[in-house]
């Protein structure tokens, strides 16, 4: 069986790498026949590449079929319809015996076969695939399959799926006429697609499907096929929460975003676990999340040692459902497709199903895309596309089976474009004939898909009477009535905190100070091991001198440790405790500022190693770090990592931006998932965002990580006396390597996989996103270093750092001005204070964790300066940016009526100036103004 070839660093995961299988070689006789009958070969190729353009794909009949001369035999000099040709090596034509295809056929028979294979109600696009073996496989499959037949039992099952979907939509319209349900009417065959994928998965050893889909048909699929309790749906429809009463603090979400995670009995040899993700309304945002979750689930099987002989994607499959307008129009689709075959991102192929209703809200296809098909954007990854007319359920089932078989054989993406229509408006309260009168005149004249299929089966004798047909409708309508009545007494159950999340809880207190220290000898071991390499491994001379030798010297001495060293020791110490680490983003192995080098490259042959993965020689065990250098995307990659974090709570998952402001390309992920996923869906995430931040003259787009945006998304109370119990995320701006070290360890702190829990030590048995305004100049700043003692047992992350000059109460009593600030500005101001000889006049208090707001720690700092008459907030960001607007109303409450003075840049539309002289003047004014009047 052929597999796609991917490269994986052996230091990360040692599972078997798929190998390419060469294409079938033609025999000498076949080659001679192909040369002799080259014109026939050209005709066959014309059908393979152009036949879809003549296929009957549009159930509305509004699409004009093209007049394609390339598929006429006369064009190739084949004018005698009775002339017979040897088919060896050219075409596979079936016969009454499927094991003995025809050896020769007339032009008439060949044309009949080619039209039946390529110009029916299914259209195939595969000749653009660059891999010969895949093209050959596809052509042989399409041409050798006489149209697949289905048993009467299968046909009755298909009919029941279509009927249930229609009954559900009619029931909802009757009982809840004012609800926007985004029904499936006109595209009921989507149920056939999903049922076929589930059954094929069960029969082929796939145990898990990770599914994402938009709102269209979501409730139908959940209720009719995925066993979502209808009483729970009706309970929600009546305005109730989907969560138990004790979780009244959660916001919940709208009806069309509901999800499920459940083992489904699909009638195959095994149940299939389906994880349908919640859907934020921003179109296609769930796609990379599903891909990340699917990969993480498969990787968990490898890490657990249960699937050592599997290929990626053998047990887990990602299925992505799309709307047609969104697939062509949303950039995240293209970004996610770009991940499909990348090392550390592939999930072994996704099945993409476009539920193509030929319209986007009120926008017709001619205005929604610049391509012939909505699926054309997917050709960027050379995946095959199968178009199918959704009015014919058996063709849909057949096309779906081919899509599944391709994905399962080659572990690559495939597109199923199910062309249907939308019987009602975008939502059921909308009148579509306002803008598409002709289309909806045609639609309203059509019998429904379930009704047409029922008629077909009645004519075939599959249904003996109309009573057999009506029985299904009557039964399901009765079931829904009973579920509606049961909803009156329905009590929701919490779906979260199961499986891998069983040790986690919905927190009742925000634990921020934990003992995250590590024994010094362990830290030294990790620090030195982080740069060890084999004797035959040569690194760049400057890297050896300034990075490796310098690290070994400082770690051995235990002093002057820089940011990257502290980070490596945080990673390595967690790995020694059994945790896995994944850091993703552009150039993360080296680091944007050439600071990390957690992955080393041999200068002579570009061989790579990850020294941290070699700390414990076999057969010893340790966690692994995965260095995922991503493609140039923020939206899809951040969404992918969010999906990984949903699946693996005990993995430290990090996404790093090249510069802090680059996150804004993924703002939708932050708004709809990271900041709000827990309160909407009770889905926790421990994802860390590293956003390099700091004003150093780099201009508008490379200075600010827009701390203010994240703080605006935080649910921290304005009343500092209201103790924060469950913050939605943490926003930090650390200024020392040790603080960063403790933050990373705190993020994953829980009962260690390799150790029994310590009942005397606080554990952080929940997950929260961590937003880090990460440093740039502090990466190598001589004053921004830490000692091993700062990371030893008994040490922790401190949300507020006091001024070390004023630890003595007597000296603190002389302070006139207390300046609160955050970030690297501290080091600049300390130097300026020393240069001005004002060490006894002004104190600098660093706010390291801005949200949740550390009111108690700040109050203690304020009390330390009883004679201070001025309290300032100083920042390098513009007044309308940075932390000021968040901090000011809260800090003033702690000052007991004293005024908080702002000092920093004036409000600005851009984050920073791009004019060098202006920047220097702003810095000078910031420095001088801080000490004015002292």
How would you describe what is shown here?
The radius of gyration is 32 Å and the shape is globular. The strands form six sheets. Strands 3-11-12-8-7-4-6-5 form an eight-stranded mixed β-sheet, sandwiched between helices. β14 and β15 form a beta hairpin. The chain has 934 residues and is of the alpha/beta class. 35% of the residues lie in helices and 13% in strands. It folds into four domains: 117 residues, no CATH class; 340 residues, Rossmann fold, CATH 3.40.50.970; 239 residues, Rossmann fold (3-Layer(aba) Sandwich); 130 residues, 3-Layer(aba) Sandwich (Rossmann fold).
Shape descriptor: globular
> What low-confidence regions span 5 or more consecutive residues with pLDDT below 50?
1-9, 752-760
Span of the ends, CA to CA: 78 Å
CATH level-4 homologous superfamily of the largest domain: Thiamin diphosphate (ThDP)-binding fold, Pyr/PP domains
Query: CATH class of the largest domain, please?
Result: Alpha Beta
Number of strands: 26
* Rg over CA atoms: 32 Å
InterPro entries: 2oxoglutarate_DH_E1, DH_E1, KGD_C_sf, ODO-1/KGD_C, THDP-binding, Transketolase-like_Pyr-bd
Family: Belongs to the alpha-ketoglutarate dehydrogenase family.
Cofactor: thiamine diphosphate
Keywords: Oxidoreductase, Thiamine pyrophosphate
Tags for this entry?
Transketolase-like pyrimidine-binding domain-containing protein; thiamine pyrophosphate; oxidoreductase; 4 domains; globular; 7-stranded mixed beta sheet; disordered N terminus; KGD_C_sf; Rossmann fold; alpha/beta; 26 strands; 934 residues; DH_E1
Task: Indicate the topology.
Blueprint: H1 28-36, H2 38-50, E1 84-86, E2 104-106, H3 107-118, E3 122-125, H4 132-144, H5 152-175, H6 190-203, E4 208-212, H7 218-224, H8 230-237, E5 260-264, E6 272-276, H9 286-303, E7 316-323, H10 324-329, H11 331-337, E8 350-356, E9 359-360, E10 363-364, H12 365-368, E11 385-389, H13 393-410, E12 414-419, H14 437-444, H15 449-460, H16 466-486, H17 520-529, H18 541-557, H19 563-576, E13 580-585, E14 600-601, E15 608-609, E16 625-629, H20 635-647, E17 651-656, H21 667-674, H22 677-681, E18 688-692, H23 707-713, E19 730-732, H24 737-748, E20 770-774, E21 800-801, H25 809-812, E22 817-821, H26 825-836, E23 842-847, E24 849-851, H27 855-863, E25 870-878, H28 884-894, E26 900-905, H29 916-930
Family: Belongs to the alpha-ketoglutarate dehydrogenase family.
Keywords: Oxidoreductase, Thiamine pyrophosphate
Domain Transketolase-like pyrimidine-binding: 561-781
